[in-house]
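in:
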């Protein structure tokens, strides 16, 4: 049996394991069960792919999406690994061939959806096969406390009952404490080990801005950080299908290669848009959360949220789709009080139990805390997942441009008093009008021009008062009545503040929302030392694109950007100089080594002797 390190070197082209990979893989190869939590881009897939090639038999990988299965199969095929996917996209004859190869021991990995795996026919097939291991990807889907619960995952507990001797490894990038415990219990992994490799993604820069003109804020961000139209690939998330369509059309008018994706679209159109996003550079996907799970495109340089996600888990999962290759990437979000009201309405109107609704409201409050914090955003994010003691990251907006806090007790009392005097029946716009003393028809109609709080807040602008109100909601001093059209309600927590017994610290935003934070842009050149290296990198990307088109696969399946950047820096001239470049295993060196060396040679010949090292 080959050793895990031999497999890592020869097949995957990596010189050494990272973090806890070696420990996880050793445990699974020895036959142990495990729950593995690793951030996106940290190499979770290797934790079952390497054991699958070390152990005898076929590894059965449970995956929720056809696109994810196909991505993995294409990538493994490039490495010379015998892999296949059994799903509804397969014809009857194709499925029969795959099943025959499984029984004959001719496949190393087979990807299958949870619904198919638990059918009597497939379970009977497994009884006739030698199984190396079971791997359950996106394992947070099994938990009702997770952000993407899927009922079909609940049946997977039968794997431990029916195949007790086969190791089972569950993997996810996102799970808080309750979700982890739920996964272990529901999958019967009680005697298995739990590996938590950390949640930090240091290459991602987190930025959150208050909504003003969201489209213009997004455009400034894309122009400043990602080359504008014709620049980087990225994802823009919106809460509603209508907003997805409108934003994609608007970006297209601005010259971007923008596509829409949501569950209400025609399935063929949705699949075509996803395929184009995966196979082309510079495409911006505008989507609801229906898009993204398992998308293995490593060169997504940004994820932008135009609306608030539903929880910190969802935010972490969605932003984690940026920068999977380890190169710099951006997570940018704009949010406002209207987002809080909408999400509150979704929670209130759901079919979930009251206990589940309470959990979802707490998760939303935690996300509001991240939005309004004056601390390092990465610290707040990591602490939510149980990682404490981290130093400020220096790579988020609150670190790059520290936000001052001040004694805002009197401002808080004015705002709270105004909410009370107006009968806890109005939202932000009306409350602010009263505070500023604006004499309009609505104020007159309700007689609010005669209130003691009318005009007591003229020291702040409307936008500044909106920030104060957001912070009071995040602090739990105000709540939003989701059944009362977004009206503010006082909470019990606010009583000591109104009596002047408790101090309230508020943040003072130092810059216009949407302005780019200082620091390096999330561009490839941040990793390349010279313009010549950048030029060679772009030449290598063009060659990779030609190879990908010829084979009908996404470019990153051929080679990752990080591998091409390493080649651009090293300038290899002989075959042996390709050894040790991360991502170039034996098969890929054999397939693409000649093209890579020829590209470097031609570039240096054209550029002249000054580029040669």
């Amino acid at each position: 049996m080959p050793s895990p390190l031999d497999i890592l070197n020869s097949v995957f082209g990596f010189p050494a394991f990272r973090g806890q990979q070696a420990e996880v893989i050793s445990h699974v190869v020895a036959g142990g069960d495990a729950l593995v939590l690793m951030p996106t881009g940290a190499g979770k897939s290797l934790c079952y792919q390497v054991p699958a090639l070390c152990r005898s038999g076929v590894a059965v990988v449970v995956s929720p999406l056809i696109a994810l299965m196909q991505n993995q199969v294409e990538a493994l095929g490039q490495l010379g690994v015998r892999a296949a996917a059994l799903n509804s996209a397969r014809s009857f004859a194709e499925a029969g061939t795959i099943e025959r190869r499984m029984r004959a021991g001719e496949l190393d990995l087979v990807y299958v959806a949870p619904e198919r795996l638990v059918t009597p026919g497939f379970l009977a097939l497994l009884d006739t096969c030698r199984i190396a291991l079971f791997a359950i990807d996106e394992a947070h889907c099994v938990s009702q406390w997770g952000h993407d619960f899927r009922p079909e995952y609940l049946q997977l507990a039968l794997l431990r009952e029916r195949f007790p001797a086969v190791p089972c490894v569950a993997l996810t990038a996102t799970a808080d404490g309750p979700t982890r415990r739920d996964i272990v219990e529901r999958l019967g992994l009680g005697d298995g080990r739990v590996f938590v490799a950390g949640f930090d993604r240091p290459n991602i820069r987190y930025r959150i801005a208050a909504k003003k003109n969201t489209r213009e804020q997004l455009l400034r961000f894309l122009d400043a950080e990602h080359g504008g139209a014709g620049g980087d690939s990225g994802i823009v998330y919106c809460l509603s299908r209508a907003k997805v369509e409108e934003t994609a059309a608007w970006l297209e008018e601005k010259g971007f290669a923008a596509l829409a994706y949501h569950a209400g679209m025609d399935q063929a159109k949705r699949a075509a848009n996803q395929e184009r996003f995966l196979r082309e550079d510079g495409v911006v996907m505008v989507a609801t959360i229906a898009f993204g799970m398992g998308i293995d495109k490593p060169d997504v340089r940004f994820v932008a949220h135009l609306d608030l996600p539903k929880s910190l888990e969802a935010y972490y999962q969605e932003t984690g789709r940026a920068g999977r290759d380890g190169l710099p990437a951006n997570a940018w979000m704009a949010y406002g009080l209207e987002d809080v009201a909408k999400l509150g309405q979704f929670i209130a109107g759901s079919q979930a139990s009251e206990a589940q609704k309470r959990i979802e409201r707490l998760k939303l409050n935690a996300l509001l805390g991240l939005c309004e914090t004056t601390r390092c955003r990465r610290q707040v994010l990591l602490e939510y997942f149980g990682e404490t003691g981290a130093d400020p990251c220096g790579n988020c907006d609150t670190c790059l441009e520290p936000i001052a806090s001040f004694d805002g007790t009197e401002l808080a009392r004015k705002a709270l008093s105004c909410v009370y005097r107006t009968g806890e029946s109005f939202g932000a716009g009306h409350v602010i009008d009263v505070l500023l003393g604006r004499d309009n028809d609505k104020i007159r109609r309700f007689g609010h021009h005669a209130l003691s709080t009318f005009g007591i807040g003229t020291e702040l602008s409307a936008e500044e008062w909106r920030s104060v109100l957001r912070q009071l909601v995040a602090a739990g001093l105000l709540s939003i009545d989701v059944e009362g059209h977004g009206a503010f309600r006082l909470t019990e927590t606010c009583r000591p503040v109104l009596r002047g017994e408790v101090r309230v610290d508020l943040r003072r935003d130092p810059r216009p929302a949407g302005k780019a934070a200082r620091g390096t842009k999330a561009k490839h050149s941040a990793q390349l030392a010279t313009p010549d290296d950048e030029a060679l990198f772009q030449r290598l990307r063009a060659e990779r694109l030609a190879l990908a088109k010829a084979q009908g696969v996404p470019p990153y399946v051929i080679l990752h950007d990080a591998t091409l950047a390493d080649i651009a820096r090293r300038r290899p001239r002989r075959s042996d100089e390709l050894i040790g470049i991360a991502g170039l295993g034996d098969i890929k060196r054999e397939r693409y080594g000649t093209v890579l060396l020829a590209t470097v040679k031609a570039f240096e010949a054209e550029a002249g002797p000054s580029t040669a090292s």
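note: Residues 512-526 have pLDDT under 50 and may be disordered.
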